[in-house]
Specification:
Helix content is 7%, strand content 29%. With 420 residues, the chain is mostly beta strands. The strands form 6 sheets. A 5-stranded mixed β-sheet has the order 15-22-21-17-18, with no helix packed on it. It has a 4-stranded mixed β-sheet with strand order 5-4-11-8. The chain has a 4-stranded antiparallel β-sheet with strand order 6-7-9-10. The structure holds ligand MTE and molybdenum atom.
Length: 420
């Protein structure tokens, strides 16, 4: 089976630069969708002509170690992981999706990299990565990162931006220092309501005055225990495309909160107004809307916690199974835990509860598995649905919103079951 995903009938917004910023009206990726595919098979042929030869070379080198991912866009680089390649309890670095809004910095070595913490703090600081390591407790946590636009590909009418299917989610093991410890050391002043995050990547226009992305967090969220300023991913230096040498990892909130190539955290007495903080970026209407509705910007709300969701990582869709087989995957829910995962192989007539693990730590997804048997040979769909600790269950259908965020409808895989 070829793992090239045929996207020829994807809407022609597939290569737009953004997963939901105001700037994403109109720009097409340089290549047609059909020229994009699995990372590895396209290296060397997908170099956009706008890039200098040197930078394009650096970019394809940076994609090394990500073979098997599906490339959705090459400028900026966006690549997702097919669901069956997300089977590991902890996502290996080569299976972690990539979502860039701009051009990654060319030099991502830890040498000389510094983090500035300033704004409304008692003692502004600038520290190297070694100084961060030496000054604060170093912790390792498995943390779930999901792009706010994961699942956008299934919106009807389509939403502009990267056409993520299922694979803009991961749970790697991150090592770093707690954001809270660093902010407390700097001395957060009483007037602070928001953080502003800054990274070293470059806007697609090349304009040094513009940031591709600069998001922030309400200060109460920033002070929670499981947000890391990370300098290791799965026990090694971060992959250059995943924010080396230093990044934020904010589990359970839209991935855009997790600033990569982190250089500065600013403390503010107003909501941060950096790139893609404004509606409709990473925002949904404050009230339910009919599919296709044009919603005025002032009616949007910034997304906070991501909703409850599950992913089936085995069996792989479009494969053959026996009459008895194991179904397994992961489930997560923003700032909550998942209390139940159920699966069906009869289009929802009956549901079977899966065995569900606790998260290995606060902020990690939960692994689940179930043995199923089917009554006769033939075509089956396996669907999964999770229910979180507040009793909120994944919806069957997509709750449409203009920018294609928060699609947590059931994941479905198709299999052909053989005779017993
Ligand atoms: N500096 C910077 N940080 C960034 C981004 C970016 O474009 N620039 N993209 C964000 C988005 S939208 C997501 S979903 C996550 C993706 O993290 P990953 O590429 O390591 O999977 O990074 C976030 N951090
Ligand atoms: Mo994202």
């Amino acid at each position: 089976m070829s793992d090239f995903l045929d996207r020829t009938d994807a809407p022609d917004t597939a290569n737009q630069e953004s997963d939901g910023g105001p700037a994403d009206t109109g720009r097409r990726g340089f290549l047609g969708a059909s020229a994009l595919g699995v990372v590895g098979s396209v290296l060397g042929v997908s170099i956009p002509l706008q890039l200098t030869a040197t930078r394009a070379l650096a970019q394809s080198e940076a994609l090394q170690g990500k073979e098997g991912l599906t490339l959705l866009n090459d400028r900026p680089v966006n690549a997702e992981t097919p669901a069956h390649l997300l089977d590991d309890a902890i996502t290996p670095t080569n299976r972690h999706f990539i979502r860039n809004n701009g051009i990654a910095p060319g030099d991502t070595s830890a040498e000389g990299w510094t983090l500035t913490v300033d704004g409304l703090v008692d003692s502004p600081m600038e520290m190297t990565i070694d100084e961060l390591r030496d000054s604060f407790e170093v912790v390792t946590l498995a943390l779930t990162l999901e792009c706010g636009g994961n699942g956008r590909a299934f919106f009807d009418p389509p939403a502009s931006g990267n056409q993520w299917t299922y694979g803009a989610v991961a749970c790697s093991e991150w090592t770093g220092v707690r954001l809270r410890d660093v902010l407390e050391a700097a001395g957060v002043q009483d007037s602070v309501v928001y953080t502003g995050h800054h990274g070293a990547d470059m806007h697609l226009s090349g304009d040094p005055e513009k940031a591709p992305l600069s998001r922030g967090l309400p200060i109460e969220k920033a002070m929670t225990d499981n947000i890391l300023i990370a300098f290791e991913m799965n026990g090694e230096a971060l992959h250059p495309m995943n924010g080396a040498p230093l990044r934020l990892v904010v589990p359970g909130w839209p991935g855009s909160c997790s600033q990569k190539w982190l250089t500065r955290i600013e403390l503010l007495d107003h909501k941060h107004d950096g790139a893609k903080m404004e509606a409709p970026s990473y925002s949904v209407p404050a009230y339910p809307v009919a599919p296709g509705t044009d919603v005025p910007n002032e009616d949007f709300e910034t997304i906070h916690a991501m909703p409850v969701k599950s992913l089936i990582t085995h069996p792989q869709t479009d494969t053959e199974v026996g009459s008895e087989f194991e179904v397994r995957g992961h489930a997560w829910s923003g700032d909550r835990t998942v209390q139940r995962v159920e699966i069906t192989t009869d289009f929802g007539e009956s549901w079977q509860e899966a065995e569900l693990d606790d998260p290995v730590n606060d902020g990690a997804w939960q692994n689940w598995r179930a043995n199923v048997s089917v009554p006769q040979a033939g075509y089956y769909e396996v669907w999964a649905r999770a229910t979180d600790s507040e009793g909120v269950m994944q919806p069957f259908a997509i709750k449409w919103n203009p920018k294609g965020y928060l699609n947590n409808s059931y994941h479905k895989v198709a299999v052909r079951a053989g005779a017993a």
